[in-house]
Amino acid sequence: MSVFLVAGCTGFIGWKVCEKLLQKGHQVVGIDNLNDYYDVRLKDYRLNLLKNYENFTFYQTDIEDLSSLREIFKRHSFDAVINEAARAGVRYSIENPFVYMTTNALGTLNLLEMCKEHGVKKFVLASTSSLYAGQPMPFKEDLPVNTPISPYAASKKSAEVMAYTYHYLYQIDVAVVRYFTVYGPAGRPDMSIFRFIKWILEGVPLQIFGDGSQSRDFTYIDDIAEGTILALNTVGYEIFNLGSNKPHSLSYVIELIERYTGKKALLEYKEFHKADMKATWADIEKAKRVLGWEPKVSLEEGIKRTVEWTLDNWGWLKHVKL
């Protein structure tokens, strides 16, 4: 049994990573500031599920708070740190860039510094496909992602670079996992799939930025969590794409949601946002080769599971604010 610190444990991906580690019998210490970037009812739902496990310990704190982190690292001896704590979302980062830098860059630095001080030799950093904007597809990890087009992407690039520095100086083994459009049950309400399902069930028009032809490499949450856990293996310093390797258009996603809800969508088209990407497509050969990972859940099956979960929990989900 190992002991893991998971920062951002009530976030969508952090929660599922914790759940899978706990199910494997590991000890998990989760930290989260429970901020209200989106409706906290979803974070409460995820946290309550984690609290059912005896091998889970929770601290409500912020990775920007170095003194609190220091106390937690004194109380526990960690085998690895997984940093899932981040301010997410391209559009909101343009409105409030400062909090993205303090959480995503400074917060990561604080965790790395604690790893250095306490001899923790493994660090997994959650990063993003948003870094690949403007690069040729499919996106490969060795592309020169030096021109991020949003503060969100810039802050994530800063975290990746700082992680490399700590690998180089202090021999911390670092795996950076770049996620591609993660979705699934209990997902983020600021993401398109959650919103589309909710809007269709409510009979509200779906707001689509662009014409619906833009495509994403939608990846199911369980696959993403498994890939993140495999990244705990010793790699030196490596970056891995975790995606489906099968981009699908927003229009096709809407068709699937219509199929599984049995309802027809009303569509409202809006101007495409300049900081968004027209398409994402992950080359996942490196994750296959080094981590032995590849996604198992198809988009069709994933949307079906997500719709079913939404219907099962509609009593409280209908009150969630978007």
From TrEMBL:
Pfam families named among the record's database cross-references: GDP_Man_Dehyd
Give start and end of each NAD(P)-binding domain: 5-306
- Keywords on this record? NAD
Would the keyword NAD be found if you checked this record's keyword annotation?
yes
Phylogenetic classification of the source organism:
Bacteria, Pseudomonadati, Aquificota, Aquificia, Aquificales
State the superkingdom: Bacteria
From what organism does this protein derive? Answer: Hydrogenobacter hydrogenophilus
Q: What is this protein called?
A: Nucleoside-diphosphate-sugar epimerase
